[in-house]
Amino acid sequence: MLERLNQAMEHIEAHLDQPIDVADLARLAVTSEYHFRRLFSALAGMPLSEYVRRRRLTLAGAEVLAGERTLLEVAVRYGYGSGEAFARAFRAVHGVGPGEARRTGAALYSQPRLSFRLVIEGSSGMRYRIVDKGEFRVVGRKARVPLVHEGVNPAIAEFIRGIGPETLGRVSALSDQEPKGIVGVSDQLDPSRAEGTELDYYHGVVTCAEAPEDLDVLAVPAGVWAVFANSGPFPHALQHLWRDVFTQWFPSNPYESRPGPEILRVSLSHDRTRADAELWIPVERAVSAGGRPLGKRR
Asked: Taken in order 245, 147, 269, 166, is the CA torsion positive or negative?
């Protein structure tokens, strides 16, 4: 997997002055576009689009300082349709406009090339199970909230506080299958997983029951789920669980993520400082370069 990801990184480097199609990168990595974006973001710590932008503007910065091309020629070479658009993007990355940088020889920001290599980690292992689950509904209350990578998500916390105990009681009574009880469901996440991008958050239950008209409903088709469990400080252990699934488990197992909601069931300690969590991620078997599902015999 790491070798294929590095082939995709080489493709990016060879095409920084051309349009880059994520489908081509996914083919090189032998995975889906959806999973490639998710995996890159988790491993690199930034969205794919942001990495490509920074690399382009790193090379553009060197050309601006070299002075061999006009600023407009540099802008067009790296995909900007006008000098104004290039200047805005250049300033956002380098903290100075291209004209000023050329005149003064200003210090610029450099985004290093990324490559992925094996680091010996994961000695503690991860416990998981694979569940083939029929179609179901998520029933509860829904809100559109920003994504927060670290710490408590204040938008979600405020949203949950606004749900009355009577409503929570009615919702809880509808739970009739795994994962049992009240769960948090994240849906319609931006593939980049960038901080501040928005998602649909449901506070509800997993059920096959009919939903009352005053509640929100998310219909989920049948599919395969990887289920992970852990315990630790709240909320960091939960957020680290998401990170570890994408940076450790996916690269080590013959599965890839597929579009669908992610479900988190949490049980908090009395002082709300620790949590037991169960995370459900929609997955499918990865396919080899020959088109055969990995991990299966011929």
From this structure: negative
Task: Dump strand ranges (E) for 134-287.
Answer: 136-146, 183-187, 198-207, 216-220, 223-233, 255-257, 262-268, 274-285
From CA 154, how far away is CA 188, in angstroms rounded? 19
Task: List the alpha helices (DSSP H) in the chain.
Answer: 2-14, 22-29, 33-44, 48-66, 71-77, 83-94, 98-104, 154-161, 165-172, 236-244, 250-252
Distance from C-alpha of 263 to C-alpha of 211, rounded to nearest angstrom: 19
Mean pLDDT of 33-46: 88
**From residue 94, how far is each of 66, 87, 88, 102, 207 by CA, in Å?**
16, 10, 10, 12, 51
pLDDT at 296: 46
Alpha carbons 40 and 287: distance in angstroms, whole number: 18
10-15 long-range contacts (CB < 8 A, ≥24 apart) are 12/51, 12/52, 12/55, 13/55, 13/113
Q: Is the pTM of this model over 0.85?
A: no
Find tokens 């069931």 and name the residue: 265
Q: Where are the alpha helices (DSSP H) in 45-164?
A: 48-66, 71-77, 83-94, 98-104, 154-161
C-alpha 175: how far from chain center: 28
